[in-house]
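Entry 14. Structure prediction run on the chain below.
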Amino acid sequence: MARARLAGAVRIARWADACLGPGRDEAGVDGKATLSDRTAARAAHDLDLTVAQARADWDTARLTGLVEVHGDSARPGWRLRAWDHDDSAVLRGWVALFDAWPLVCPEPEGHESAAVAEVVSAMPQVLSFLQLSAGPVPVDQLLDLLRQRVTELRTERCEVPYDPASGPAPVRAPSIVQQPVSGPDDTRTAGAAPDAEAPRQPRPASRLALASVASGTEVGPAAAAAARPGDRTADGDGRVAAPAGPPAEVEAAALVPLLDWALGALASVGALTYGDGQATLTPLGSWAVWVKLEQICVAAQSPAGNIEQSAEHMLRGCAQLRPNAARAEYRAWLAARPVGSAVAELLAAARGDDALLRGLAFEALRVVGAPAEADVRAVLDEPTLRPYALLWLAEHDGVDPEDAHEVLTREEATWLWVDTAAAVADHGEAEMLVRHLETAVQPTVPALLDEVRAVGHPRTVQVLVALAAAHPDPALAKLVRRAAFQVHTGAS
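Output returned:
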């Protein structure tokens, strides 16, 4: 379904790769990431589309990350490169479009931006209710839910009616669903897309509790009980008909065009069907909402409580955790932030002076998976990160982790050995440093010392001094100390 929905965007992205790449003289984009008139006309001609269709497909390609615009040229995004062989890239591309639904269709005119923002903020609960319903839901019921959710948002901001004579009007606290939230067994993150063919559905007993955490809110009264029939109607083409009556109904009437816009935009990206007075999530939309709810649960269950910390502080908090617990913490931390900024923050932490954080950062990037590939490739020219990046890319390409070290040159392997030894010296025990000596690629200690001196790692002296102090063999310890002295003084 995702491939079919994005077929037009993929087609124009591949056209752009051929015609708008750097160094080509053809018409390009207009510098604002949109097609210039000349380029749109040419794309329409080459692809047998109307100009409007070409522009729409181009916008979709940009929103899904299939193309990246740089100045007046365009280049393919990583998703386009992975499109034919990676189903998870396809799903993530569609989720990116799903997340961008407010940008797909122009918002209705005559409404303040604050009102539009309230509806956008309230739609996750509407979508959660649609997912819970697992079938068609009358639009007037969704309108009632939207009105109540907007009221709750205003209440949270203390925007309550105030009468100078009688004081502020009493505010009814939103209902709270007293049901424990249990996390899913197979959590997903920004880098771990679910199976493309059979999206997993939640257990019925836990679905209402999951919905209660959508957007950090409790399930409101409209999500827990059916709406009152007869309050409002829909017109013949399924659009919401404006009600009239008491103040609550007048407030709902103002939301009618905004709900119509939101449902129409979500329908245009393939998340739901909308017509005949009702809305229904598509299987793709139902899966996407479930993934969003699941990510919220993952973020809410951060085992070590590092979810709000920076990448550096999170990695330090994970240093004493067992591997499985650390991966759970990485998943929780990643689920709470956009994948792009998370990857950038992890790489920034890896560039620091702490070798332990460098290794842990790339462990966290393994949890991210394919979305981090382009950023990891971009650091191959950085000597400090290159060995880690090469191992990451080898494992990402399917190389067995036990054999991944074979992609490193002798010099890169030696540099990585010193960097890992620095992490052990700073944070581990002496016995660990001695055992680390056995992992060197060199067959003898003198050969290792010769190559360690040549590799030029900034921590070489400290590592050798610590190794000499920890090693139980006096003769070998003396040899290592001599090597440390030679590096320190620059002697050969």
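The longest strand covers residues 67-70.
Filed with the rest of this week's runs.
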